Amino acid sequence: MSMPNEIAFLLCALVTLVGAVAAMMLRNLIHCALCAAGAFAGLAAIYLQLDAQFAGFAQLLIYVGAIAILIVFTVLLTRGADILPGTASAAPSWWMGLPVGGLVLACLIESILASPSLRRLPPPEIQAPVKQIGEQLMNQFVMPLETIGLLLTAALLGAVVIGLREPRPSEPNSQ
Amino acid sequence: MTTPLAHYLILAALLFSIGLAGALARRNAVLVLIGLELMLNAANLNFIAFWRFGPHPERLTGVMFVLFSIAIAAAEAALGLALVIAIYRHRRTAQVDRFDSLKG
Fold first, then answer.
1. CB atoms A80 and B28 under 8 Å
2. DSSP string covering A22-40, please?
3. Helices marked H in B1-104 — which ranges?
4. Interatomic CA distance for residues A21 and A101, integer angstroms
5. Count of beta carbons in the 10 Å neighbourhood of residue B68
6. Angle (nearest 5°) at CA A172 between A170 and A173
7. Cross-strand pairs, B28
8. Which of A28, A76, A108, B32 has its CA 20 to 30 Å from the CA of residue B49?
């Protein structure tokens, strides 16, 4: 066992888990979004530790860069940062979430610990250069790549159409 | 690279459970979406860990799956947040337990 790797993994895991728990438990939605960004960044560090550099940087760019900003904008646009007084229903209903989450966690941990794949050792040195990823994307995975491009275009156009404010000429005092 | 596979899997299981519990418990639609993203990330971590510990890491299938999954998650987040904004404009609330009528 090499200790530095283990310590780095534990630090990244701690950042990820604390960020995730804080994102789900804090009351201020802006704080929740920032903690979620921290959890995504910790996961990106774990990808880098697992020698998946391209996936780690993609995670950093897309999750920490784009999705976190999108979430913050949505919170601001929906005035979710204001804690409205007298709204008891805004409090989370943990009596429902915690048992289901705990049950799923127990099932997952039990099957993980019973799995024979735990004794598997990783290949000592692997190469996953960006050039090889690009070649595979252009040869073996070219069809999924095109489909993803089409899907992203359709999804972003759909998001713009859904987010557009529809004109209401029949209601003069719609504000 | 000597951290055992079980640590990554248990971290992913914890992350998935946190996301699931939060998505079920929180009432704000944006937080439900954050919970969904956490669950997707836990699945991605499993893909990367199994790819790294698998017998043929040179074939890069795990990394490819994660890249496509991240792209789909981006599309899902954009659409979901646009829906939240549209519903907020309509109903003046982002609490999911207030979206209880189909007539609007």
1. yes
2. HHHH-SSHHHHHHHHHHHH
3. 5-25, 29-53, 61-91
4. 12
5. 17
6. 130
7. B95
8. B32
Task: From A129, A47, A60, select the one nearest B44 (Cα to Cα).
Answer: A47
Q: Using 70 as the pLDDT threshold, list the residues of chain A that sit under it.
A: 1-2, 80-91, 124, 127-128, 167-175
- Whole-angstrom CA distances from B92 to B34, B86, B88, B95, B96 are 21, 10, 5, 9, 12
User: Which residues on chain B are in Cβ contact (under 8 Å) with A70?
Assistant: 77-78, 81
Give the N- to C-terminal CA distance of chain B in Å, as an integer.
54
Q: Which amino acid is at A125?
A: E
| Residue A45 near chain B (CB below 8 Å) | no
Show Cβ contacts of residue A133 under 8 Å, excluding neighbours closer than 6 positions. A54, B60, B63, B64
The CA distance from A59 to B66, in Å, is 9
Write out the H or E segment, with its range, that includes residue A130.
helix A130-139
* pLDDT for the residue A173: 52
- Residue B43 tokens, joined: 């699945």
| Interface predicted TM-score of the whole assembly (ipTM), two decimals | 0.91
